[in-house]
Amino acid sequence: MLKTQHETVLIVALCASVFFGSIAGGFTSFLLVEHGWFEGGGTNDVKIEGVSKDTEKAIAGLVEEQDATIAVVKQVTPAVVSIYLEKKYPQYGATQSDVTYEYQRVGGGSGFIVSTDGLIVTNKHVVSDADAKYVVATNDGTEYDATVVAKDVFLDVAFVKIEGTNFPTVKLGDSDGIQTGQTVLAIGNVLSQYQNSVTKGIVSGLNRTIVAGDGYGAQEQIDEAIQTDAPINAGNSGGPLINLYGEVLGVNSAVSTQGESLGFSIPINVVKPLLADVVAHGRIIRPWLGVRYVMINPEIKKKFALSVDKGALVVPESATQQQSVVSGSPAALAGIKPSDIVISVSGIVLDDKTNLSEAINTFDPDQTVKLEILRGTDTVWVDVTLKELDPSLF
User: In order along the chain (394 residues), what is the average pLDDT of each group of 10 residues?
Assistant: First the structure.
């Protein structure tokens, strides 16, 4: 478990249904009908005795949103899947030598289908065990053996494939247009038992940077995360966060263990370029510079006695105990040194809004970028030809 800067412990949502919401909604409708408060028969024609027109409109709006929610859930859930992790365990017979091995389900998460031939988006931590077998269950209960196609090095995103045709798919939205306060729904395989459970809430924050752990040492940093109070539970990992138009806005990834109704999703616009790579090339393609760095803030400035307030410090090897400039990397070939401070990348200034990785990721492998570097008291300009990142290095 890890704490964020705000002392919030987060866990990845690997592994409350709407039961109480359904009971409450049904009970309210029963009271309205029992007491004759509704006139007219349809949800679009709400008239209530003894209340103002504004109240009637407000209630009609709630009923309309409820109808929209139901319609959207029906639209999206066929494309939401459960992903189960299975591992081999020994089964002993009458003697110790009489041993067979059988697969048992030991965990699970969620995902959503993005192409009719069975390509699925999920979280990397859902499919991180290289020794496990993965099984995907679709909404109709059909199960498929799954292949892990690609896992991103930096983001908690992975792509899984099942074999078949004409699978239902989700519609990807525009996460850059998200508004704080807008209604969202989370769909997933809660507790790895309750497939396609739906929770509802609002977007309660944007552009959060969090560090999440699974409680067993694995950690992921999520930048630009969408914060929501739609309950995200164990097993929701990899499922979609959608709006009332049925568009996917994010990939549900983490939940707080300390604060109530604190869930976090990876924006779908961050995932789209990775999806495009997988569709076109069968893998995720990222440019590689090859340095270990830390972004400068007041604490880092003081710790390393720096003269500037922003930029990316190539960490001194005495501090990292590793190569801060990886041998054979584009950075090493270009002559970048430990303790260099990268100020900008081809005109992109590095500051509290844009880190070095984000700047590099705006370019392609084999492109040459110009780094503005502060080396001691001198400013130098270095041309670096980026390479494609080799995931085996991580």
Answer: 39 41 35 38 51 62 71 91 89 78 84 97 91 92 94 92 96 93 87 73 81 55 81 82 94 70 86 95 94 92 93 84 87 95 96 89 95 95 95 75
The residue type found at 200 is K
Nearest Cα to Cα of residue 221 among 229, 206, 231, 211: 211
Is the pTM value of this prediction over 0.70? yes
The one catalytic residue in 82, 128, 152, 156 is 156
Q: Is 184 exposed, middle or buried (0-12, 13-18, 19+ CB in 10 A)?
A: buried
Looking at 110, 128, 175, 237, which residue is catalytic? 237
Whether 110 and 200 share a structural domain: no
Check if the beta carbon of residue 206 is closer than 8 Å to that of residue 178.
yes
> In what helix (H) or strand (E) does residue 71 lie, and over which residues does it extend?
helix 53-76
pLDDT of the residue at 169: 96
Q: Is 156 a catalytic residue?
A: yes
Number of domains within the chain: 3
Residue 302 and residue 203 in one domain: no
Q: How far apart are CA 356 and CA 109, in angstroms?
A: 32
Residues 135, 218: Cα–Cα separation, whole Å: 22
| pLDDT on residue 267 | 94
Residue 7 tokens read as 């002392």
Per annotation, catalytic residue among 82, 125, 324, 329: 125
Reduced to 3 states (helix: H, G, I; strand: E, B; else coil), residue 336 is: coil
Q: Are residues 270 and 247 in the same domain?
A: yes
Decide if 125 is catalytic.
yes
